[in-house]
Design a protein that fits this description.
With 266 residues, this protein is α+β, with helices and mostly antiparallel strands. Helix content is 41%, strand content 21%. The chain has a six-stranded antiparallel beta barrel with strand order 1-2-7-6-5-4. The longest helix has 20 residues.
């Protein structure tokens, strides 16, 4: 803000009380959206101001609202529903698609076919590298695949809860299985995997639902590394299923079947 500009500093929001009012509105909106953890972050700014003014009436209301937010976090009400899935489009931008499956996102992109003609637009629904030399120059291509948040090992120590693993993130990963002879999948001893890590310009969630990708990294997993990674994931799934509260026998059975099935089939 420029203090020399007329009217900038005379608005009703450009004051301490105006700031508190805007923050309280933000807290209410976060609460309505199910982002209860952010309610706490907003009130961390408000509470010192109220304490300085000894405004115990509003402090009482604020702590009451915080109690409701913390109760909602404990009960996991709406928290999982408030976290959206994310997809990468054309490997140039990443967008939040709500709680939507990839197939439904692809159907949504059919809008461009209606605008420019069904034969002029084609959606590529896998994450395999595209050979641009084989593409028709007279057609528009949209490549889309699902991505998941990516964290280094040291980050996982501070990202414990479901909310922390899906909020304020700018690195995502998708995997592409392949074999040396060109097939996507093969026997255990010949199965490779390409992990692609994308870094976005801003962290999700953001004001915009689509954010540009500014960096891309790739690394290849050998068959033994792929097997180790699969075992590690199954171990984590088994741990989560056995420690779930309340216990869910059906979920445990599904995880056990998935763990045993791959070994038996191989």
């Amino acid at each position: 803000l420029s203090p020399d500009e007329d009217g900038i500093c005379s608005g009703r929001y450009f004051s301490e009380s105006g700031l508190v009012g805007l923050l309280e509105q933000a807290a209410e909106l976060f609460s309505t959206g199910g982002l209860y953890e952010t309610v706490n972050e907003v009130y961390k700014i408000v509470i010192p101001i109220l304490e300085a003014h000894r405004d115990f009436r509003n402090l009482t209301l604020t702590h009451s609202k915080l109690q409701k937010a913390f109760d909602s976090i404990i009960n996991k009400v709406l928290v999982r529903q408030g976290t959206a899935t994310r997809h990468i489009v054309g490997l140039h931008c990443l967008f939040k698609a709500g709680v939507t499956k990839t197939v439904h996102v692809c159907i949504g992109f059919g809008f461009y076919g209606q605008c420019f003609g069904e034969d002029a637009v084609e959606v590529i629904k896998d994450s395999a590298p595209v050979d641009k030399r084989k593409l028709d120059p007279n057609k528009a291509y949209i490549q889309i695949t699902f991505v998941e948040p990516y964290f280094d090992e040291y980050e996982m120590k501070d990202r414990v809860t479901y909310f922390e693993k899906n909020f304020n993130i700018c690195r995502f990963m998708y995997t592409t299985p392949f074999t040396m002879d060109g097939r996507p999948r093969g026997e255990l001893y010949e199965q490779y995997k390409r992990n692609t890590i994308l870094t976005t310009m801003h962290a999700f969630p953001y004001i915009k639902t689509r954010i540009n990708v500014i960096q891309r990294e790739e690394f290849i997993l050998t068959p033994i590394e792929v097997a180790i990674e699969d075992m590690r994931k199954k171990t984590q799934e088994l741990t989560a299923a056995t420690n779930q509260e309340p216990p869910d026998a059906k979920m445990l059975q599904m995880v056990l079947q998935g763990s045993v099935g791959a070994t038996v089939n191989q």
